[in-house]
Design goal:
Blueprint (H helix, E strand, L loop, with lengths): L1 E4 L28 H7 L11 H4 L14 E9 L16 H13 L2 E5 H7 L8 H9 L7 E5 L10 H4 L6 E4 L5 H9 L3 E4 L8 H10 L4 E4 L3 H9 L5 E7 L22 E9 L2 E8 L1
Parallel strand pairs: 2-7, 2-8, 3-4, 3-7, 4-5, 5-6
Antiparallel strand pairs: 1-9, 8-10, 9-10
């Protein structure tokens, strides 16, 4: 792993032959430890995060002062813009991408995901990782992030491990007009239903507020594209962590975000760029 941006003394280090260095020379490529990755992807200072509202933790800081919830997305795209291959993101990922994926989950209070992605990717509950235990405890977080599934229809298999055996109760974000029998089935399976819309669908801004009301301030979404498009259109996405995979797939795969276009393109600024084995790991924040 090497840092290409922002430029630092390390990224501008001399090349191995003694010639003046250029940002991101191969001479500074090295293995990054968990702590270094966690610092590179830390949430903004002051964001209050806690899983107390879900897990009943007595160490949480739910309701403490802070700048409010912070929603970041983590997505991967090929060089030709495909967010998936054969309906899944794993074929266009890499070992380094999965390390960052795990790091972002280890820092989050909750992972927000669309129902279709749950079905296609075979989502499982987030697991507690010993490497993150001390860091999460110090931040007032539970042992693992909760998973929040966005679904209007609640047409989900509640016998799956995501609902039947999660470390923390899985959250279901839905609208007030969701079918009562599906809500009852979800609650019987142990899920916690959170109403975040007046109709059948979910209002993205209301969903963010509802999660914050549960003490979940460090928010992470892993898509899929339709959900990310809704979050972008609603103006609630604060940050995008985008992996650019050095692959070409052609085909008709979705982009990382789908849906109707916004009236004015949303402007984000680059804050970090890492590289390993040809994969670029960028981090953008809205301006």
């Amino acid at each position: 792993m090497r840092r290409l941006f922002p430029v630092t003394d390390e990224t501008a280090a001399p090349a191995s032959d003694g010639a003046p260095g250029t940002p991101g020379t191969a001479a500074v490529a090295r293995d990054w430890g968990l702590d270094e990755l966690a610092e590179a992807y830390a949430y903004p200072v002051g964001v209050a995060g806690s899983s107390a509202g879900v897990a009943g933790s007595t160490t949480g800081v739910a309701g403490s002062a802070g700048p409010g919830p912070w929603l970041r997305a983590n997505m991967v795209s090929t060089l030709d813009g495909a967010a998936q291959h054969d309906g899944r993101s794993q074929p266009i990922s890499s070992a380094a991408d999965m390390r960052i994926f795990g790091t972002l989950r280890g820092l989050a209070d909750v992972v927000i995901v669309g129902a279709e992605t749950v079905r296609q990717e075979g989502y499982r509950p987030a697991r507690a990782r010993a490497d993150f235990a001390a860091r999460r405890a110090a931040a007032g977080q539970g042992p693992a992030p909760a998973i929040a599934v966005v679904s209007a229809s609640l047409d989900l298999d509640f016998s799956l491990p995501l609902f039947a055996s999660p470390l923390l109760p899985t959250l279901l974000l839905t609208g007030a007009a969701a079918a009562p029998d599906r809500i009852a089935a979800a609650e019987k399976a142990g899920a916690r239903v959170v109403i975040a819309g007046d109709g059948r669908g979910v209002d993205p801004a209301r969903a963010v507020r509802a999660l914050a009301d549960l003490g979940l301030h460090r928010l992470l979404t892993e898509g899929g594209p339709r959900l990310l498009g809704q979050l972008v259109a609603a103006g609630v996405l604060d940050e995008l962590c985008l992996t650019v995979s050095p692959m070409l797939t052609v085909g008709d795969a979705q982009r990382i975000a789908g849906g109707p276009s916004v009236a004015v393109p949303r402007r984000f600024e680059l804050t970090s760029l890492l590289e390993e084995a040809g994969f670029l790991f960028s981090r953008y924040r809205r301006t």
